[in-house]
RNA sequence: GGCCCCUUCGUCUAACGGUUAGGACGUCGGCCUCUCACGUCGAAAACAUGGGUUCAAAUCCCGUAGGGGUCACCA
């Protein structure tokens, strides 16, 4: 059997969104898994809404996720061009052939005429369906016309959907739809069929919302005399209110998650688990997914996008990075937050302590500003811990650090313990005031780590400032 | 409204006729501990509903309800 050929065919009307990314991912995984080919095609026939900017945004998102295409824009391939607007001749040829064979016909009805009929049907509470007005009229290319596809009036078309099983569509619910507009631009269903045929696509994996297009497309394949591919329809991704995921549910573009400090590994991992699973396993590398993914394991039910779980997945991936790798990835986020971070030993220390504490790379900047900037003293923390009673403790720590050779953990530990025990206190009683003095708040990484990252000079400066404040 | 699809903890899901219905996120509690987090232990939490079929149904069939999708010279 030939290797599968799959495709991702977005319309460049906006950024790459979560749902599109998952569709792309499933197709990509299948291609990688089977040694097949992943084709990228841009469906830009809606000239009003398609933009070059959106094309770039989609490519950008795909590249970030690590989903490279084997054929398509940029990489070329034997079945191009890969933009529909560059394939207009192909659609016309196919449409004309259908007209010649009587499987399609020219329709001279105007939009206005049809609109009147549609209104009429609506008024009579009737389902509007193109009545076949031009079905038997002779072909006159000199008159303004569109091409309509002739659909059987009875019977039904069914197919064995890879994820949903057998689906059947009665022909009476279909109509003679327009496949080619007067200006030669194909309509969606026709463009898809001609392209999938000429690009030799063997498996069409796409969103659930295309189920109702499938029978008409199959009818077109048959009219054209081409082999029908296998179809698989992935369930929708929903928002918390169980309606289709959209902007009002929050961020929906994959690049928004990049900007929020998510790792592509995590986004892909989360997305693959939305509609697919492998036993109890939650974490998958791209390599593991490729090995384990199977279209047959894709579930049939729509899934709610859960930002909390994606954050958890992100944290898991963050925890798996080595500190140098983490530093490299975190640096741009610290910079973006206006922090004077460098790719140096200090950054390595910061990301190491942040690794278990922050769930996104953006959190590294948000939560650990005080390693790079003067502290923002939390008033409540100040009132509770920077009080005269704690002055001797702060002083003891300050003097101890001032007199230390280095800042080894063991030495710091000894200092804090002595300061506490000498007064019959627990270490926490010392650590908290110091923590407030050094970080401005009551929650931070281990206090010895904080001292080491800040360094002796800065630690002493902050302790002195706190002592002054205490009075 | 017509047609199509879907229905297991709040959420993602496992189960492929026989399980105390499992795991994960989230939530709550214990432990660990210099705070936070991590880790760890534990708890609460689901088969939409009514009929069949079967010795046996979350699993198969039918109905009902609920949800989603789609009905363009958009994609």
Describe this structure in words.
46% of the residues lie in helices and 10% in strands. It has 471 residues and is mostly helical. The model has no long low-confidence stretch (mean pLDDT 96). It contains 18 helices and eleven strands. Strands 3-4-7 form a three-stranded antiparallel β-sheet. Strands 1-2 form a two-stranded parallel ribbon. The longest helix is centred in the C-terminal third of the chain and has 24 residues, at 447-470. The N and C termini lie far apart (83 Å). The chain binds one RNA strand of 75 nucleotides through α4, β6, α5, α6 and β11.
Tell me briefly what this model is.
The protein has helices spanning 18-34, 52-65, 88-100, 111-123, 188-198, 211-224, 254-259, 264-272, 286-292, 307-320, 323-336, 345-354, 361-367, 379-385, 391-402, 409-421, 427-439, 447-470; strands at residues 5-8, 37-40, 104-107, 146-149, 156-161, 165-170, 178-180, 203-207, 230-234, 237-238, 303-304. The protein has 471 residues and is mostly helical. A three-stranded antiparallel beta sheet has the order 3-4-7. Strands 1-2 form a two-stranded parallel ribbon. A two-stranded antiparallel ribbon has the order 5-6.
Topology summary:
Elements: E1 5-8, H1 18-34, E2 37-40, H2 52-65, H3 88-100, E3 104-107, H4 111-123, E4 146-149, E5 156-161, E6 165-170, E7 178-180, H5 188-198, E8 203-207, H6 211-224, E9 230-234, E10 237-238, H7 254-259, H8 264-272, H9 286-292, E11 303-304, H10 307-320, H11 323-336, H12 345-354, H13 361-367, H14 379-385, H15 391-402, H16 409-421, H17 427-439, H18 447-470
The protein binds one RNA strand of 75 nucleotides through α4, β6, α5, α6 and β11.
């Amino acid at each position: 059997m030939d290797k599968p050929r799959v495709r991702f065919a977005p319309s460049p009307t906006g950024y790459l969104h979560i749902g599109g990314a998952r569709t792309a991912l499933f197709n990509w995984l299948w291609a990688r898994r089977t040694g097949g080919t992943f084709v990228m095609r841009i469906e830009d026939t809606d000239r009003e809404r398609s933009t070059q900017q959106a094309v770039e945004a989609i490519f950008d998102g795909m590249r970030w996720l690590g989903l490279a295409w084997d054929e398509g824009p940029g990489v070329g391939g034997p079945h191009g061009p890969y933009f529909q607007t560059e394939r207009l001749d192909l659609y016309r040829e196919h449409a004309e052939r259908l007209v010649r064979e009587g499987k399609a016909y020219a329709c001279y009805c105007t939009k206005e005429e049809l609109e009147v009929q549609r209104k009429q049907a609506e008024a009579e509470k009737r389902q509007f369906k193109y009545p076949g007005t031009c079905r038997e009229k002779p072909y006159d290319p000199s008159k303004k016309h569109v091409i309509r596809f002739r659909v059987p009036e009875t019977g039904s078309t069914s197919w064995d959907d890879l994820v949903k099983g057998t689906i059947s569509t009665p022909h009476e619910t279909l109509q003679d739809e327009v496949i080619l507009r007067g200006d030669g631009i194909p309509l969606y269903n026709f463009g898809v069929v001609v392209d999938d045929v000429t690009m030799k696509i063997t498996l069409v994996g796409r969103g659930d919302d295309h189920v109702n297009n499938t029978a008409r497309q199959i009818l077109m394949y048959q009219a054209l005399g081409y082999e029908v591919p296998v179809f698989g329809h992935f369930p929708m991704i929903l928002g918390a209110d169980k309606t289709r995921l959209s902007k009002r549910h929050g961020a929906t573009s994959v690049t928004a998650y990049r900007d929020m400090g998510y790792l592509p590994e995590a986004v892909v991992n989360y997305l693959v688990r939305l509609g697919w699973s492998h036993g109890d396993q939650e974490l998958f590398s791209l390599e593991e997914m490729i090995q384990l993914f199977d279209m047959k394991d894709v579930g049939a039910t729509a899934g709610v996008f859960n930002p909390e779980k994606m954050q958890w997945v992100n944290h898991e991936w963050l925890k798996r990075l080595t500190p140098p790798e983490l530093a490299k990835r975190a640096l741009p986020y610290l910079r973006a937050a206006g922090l004077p971070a460098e790719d140096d030993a200090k950054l390595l220390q910061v990301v190491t302590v942040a690794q278990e504490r922050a769930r996104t790379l953006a959190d590294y900047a948000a939560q650990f500003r005080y390693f790079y900037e003067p502290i923002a003293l939390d008033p409540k923390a100040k009132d509770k811990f920077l009080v005269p009673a704690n002055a001797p403790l702060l002083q003891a720590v300050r003097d101890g650090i001032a007199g230390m050779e280095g800042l080894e953990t063991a030495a710091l530990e000894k200092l804090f313990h002595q300061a506490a025990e000498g007064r019959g206190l627990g270490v926490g009683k010392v650590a908290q005031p110091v923590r407030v003095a050094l970080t401005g708040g009551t929650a931070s990484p281990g206090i010895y780590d904080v001292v080491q990252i800040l360094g002796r000079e800065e630690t002493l400066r902050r302790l002195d400032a706190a002592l002054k404040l205490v009075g």
